Amino acid sequence: MKKQTMRELLTGLQLYQAVSGEKDMTVTVDKYTRSLLTVIAVLLCLVVVGLWHETPNTTQVAEARGIPNQGEQLDEVVIELQQVNTSLEMIADLLVSGQVKVSLLDDNGKPIAADTIPAATAPAEQ
Question: Are 25 and 13 in contact (CB under 8 A)?
C-alpha cells in the first residue's frame, strides 16, 4: 500500500465527498479498538496520578538534608566568607611588610643560592 501525505488524504476525502454528495463522514470503531484505547487512557491516568503523588515537598527535602533554614545557612556562609577575607588581608599585609623571609633548601637541608634558582615562566597556552 502506498503511503500518502495528509494533504493527499484530505484532497481524496474532499473529492469523495464532492462525488458522493455526503457532507459528513462517520467513522466506526470496533470493540477491540475501543477497549484498547480505554486501557491506554486508564494507564495514562495512572501515570499522571503516580507522578503527582511522588512529587516531593521541597520543605521536607531541605529538612531531610539537615538544612532547617536556608536563610540561616546563607548567613553562616557569609560570615565564614568574611573570616576568610580577613585572613587573606592579614597574609597580604604580612607579605607586603617584608617581614617574611623565604629561603630555599635542597634535599640535604642546605640553603640554595638565589642566582641558581631558575626564573618562573608562565605555562604555555594551549
Answer: yes
